[in-house]
Amino acid sequence: MEKTDQLMRNRAKAIRLIGIANELLAMARELEIGTSVAADPLDIGTRIEAQEVAKTSASQDHPVWVELARQTYEDRRRRAKIFQSDDLFGEPAWDILLDLFIAAKERRRVSVTSACIGSAVPSTTALRWITILQKQNLLVREADTGDARRVYVKLSARGYAAMLEYFASASRSVVLLDDPRPGILAAL
Known about the structure:
The chain is mainly alpha-helical.
């Protein structure tokens, strides 16, 4: 009984630590979004838009969303495995956005090749969708300074904010139930 209690306490601590780590990653991402755009002094409109997105993101971000994104991505892979068909559930743009959102939260870089693999479609199809997402200003490409053959992709400020908005609206009740503030459930 004592071992079970200790395991439960350790698990609760681990979950809290994961939440804190995700909050720190979100804060770092907001700082990165604000500074990366501010580095281009010629485009004041983009800089102001990114600052507004960062403010909105700060008020919406929640550590549980990266876990929901992971679960969503895994659910999509599981469907194809269970139904034994990759053709039934194709939505490469969403898979790419999920992969990039998870990567942003984990502070890791995603190469174009990796994004193509993560989309679970042929490379030509994935590259077409990456181009479409870039034209929609949902992701950006970055050249690897150490290897000219490699290009990375990441969510743009607009793409990151859109993913936050999606998970905020999709998980509103989960986040509210987790909120320790008194009376928050009364808002439901």
